[in-house]
Amino acid sequence: MRSSSLSVLALSLVLPAVSVPAFAQTETTLDPVILSGGLTPMRAADYGRAFSVVTAEEIEKRGITTVQDALRALPGVSVNGTGREMGQVRIRGGEGDHTLVLIDGVPAAGGSREYMFAGLETNNIERIEVLRGPQAAFFGSNASSGVINIITRKAERNGYGGQIELGNGHNASAYTQVRGQNGGLRLSFGELKDNGHDLSGSNGEKDGMSRQWAQLSGDWQATERLSFSMLARWADEVHENDPEPGTGTNLTNILSDDPDSGSFRQEHALSFAARYGRTDERVVHHLSVANVISKSRWYLNNVPDRAETRSLKYRAEIGLDGSVASAGHVLNLLAERQLENFIGAYQPLTKRQQSSFAAEYRGNLADNLSLQFGLRHDLNTVYDDFTSWNAAISYQINDQIRLHASAGRARVLPTWSELYTVTSNFVGNPNLKPEINNSIDLGVEFSTADGRGLVDVTLFKERLKNEIYGVWNGTSSSPVNRVEDSDRQGVEVSGRWAMNQQLSFGANYTWLDAKEWDGSPEIRRPKHELGLNATWVSQDDRLTLNGNLRLVSGNWDKAWLSIGTVTAKMPTYAVVNVAASYKLRDNLTLTGRVNNLFDKDYADAWDYKSPERNIWVGVKADF
């Protein structure tokens, strides 16, 4: 077994020389942050709900190449799964399909499917916003635990560039962009190839993955009042894995090495949007249409699962006491039509349709007090009508202290597999009811007088009704709704401090108490997650060093052995990653990183072995 008992001690030696993501220079001024936190963007200072933002600068300094790695150890967020291709993200202890993932405001997965992050790259990402707590009033079904909105880069100038990184595989991308007086166009594409490692730990073949992707985005200011935008996205993934046959005798021989086990995935998304009106007017209109398709199949399946979502959405911004840009009171209205369909290897074509109507009020009642309230009513062809809501308040007590609080209600529709899939060991249940989540949180944000430091502490409590769980009858499993409620509560802490223009530190911590109806712990929901990081930048701004540690404790998981199902507590682990970059020129940068610096043997699910220490070096150019 690879050991890392010195990880925490070693980090104390690493931190003075390395650093945390992009807090040193950009964050010291605490510039206003604009969030996609409602039906239209809003200032972070007026936002009453809990959130985190990961910027492109932070991603580059930490040497992060995938979105799931960027999300690890954020407050309230847990990333785990059975191998890289099954990277699940849970917010506040909810299920993976309780988090809605958006890319530029469009669902990342079709058919309300849970989005598996796998190799989703960061090369083309401008920022990642994580909104915690129920968001269905603004974003619709499945935004029960929270929303992850991934915002990609757009054309800002004429130019081209790219980057390549070599290590246990390769990661390469390129882009070209043009910007004229009335619009811009950007084309990006790339490939990530990770040779992987043996998930089973039995000295078998490596279980790797590859992802090819391309994206085209553009915008055009047709007239003074009318503008258009578009986005086309494509990705193709191949994943190798090892099966869990249920014949293991203990918690260290669960998996079976199998060179013929794996899966394929494809993503297709196309969206168009139009905007009519200027921000100095009282009313601005938005119209958008989108089509998202997700395909997947196992190696042995000839027929892929195909999930699709088609949507048509109209939004109106109305300044109640002035123009949209200057109004202290704003009303946003939404009308949306959405069609989902799914066909799979184990189920026939099924469809469901939903019409939604929503309203959002935002008001600055004083210079230091902001309110936000949203209401949404869904008319679904399969399920009963449902009304979701969200209310939030932000109160700036003084220059250093801000209070924020929110409450909300949301529902999650059953997945297509839970409803209709029939196999030899699984039988779907078409009578399942949607899950309903009720949540409340209260937080306080402290900032230093000089603006160099910030700490936020948020307490939350959530209650899930109609929880869907599996029942084994001896030959097959079938999902049913639980009669009893499932409770989750916890504390989220985040902080950053810029010691000076060169050295900065950051920390995130989550304490989570997620339990089943009978008091037993929910699996794959760590009780403690801690992230520490530090970033050092040379005076000439050429050399950047970064180090971060992730500590996970109190994680439980379930294993299917020959003797039956066993639930046990997993070992605590700490993982250290380091990264560096050096600017040869303003537009040419050398990069390097070491993942799992101390070659720690760890896992987030029983017997799914962790990647060994791996080293990557690369170069990035922009012209």
Write up what this structure looks like.
This protein has 623 residues and is mainly β. It has five helices and 35 strands. The strands form six sheets. The protein has a 22-stranded antiparallel barrel. It has a five-stranded mixed β-sheet with strand order 3-8-9-6-7. A two-stranded antiparallel ribbon has the order 1-2. Strand 15 (262-276) and strand 16 form a beta hairpin. The radius of gyration is 24 Å and the shape is globular. The two termini are 46 Å apart.
Topology, please?
Elements: H1 7-14, E1 34-35, E2 42-43, E3 51-55, H2 56-62, H3 67-71, E4 77-80, E5 88-91, E6 99-103, E7 106-107, E8 125-132, H4 136-139, E9 146-152, E10 159-167, E11 169-179, E12 183-197, E13 207-221, E14 226-240, E15 262-276, E16 283-298, E17 305-319, E18 329-344, E19 347-366, E20 369-380, E21 386-396, E22 401-412, H5 416-420, E23 435-447, E24 453-465, E25 468-472, E26 477-481, E27 486-498, E28 503-514, E29 528-537, E30 543-553, E31 556-561, E32 564-569, E33 573-585, E34 588-595, E35 614-622
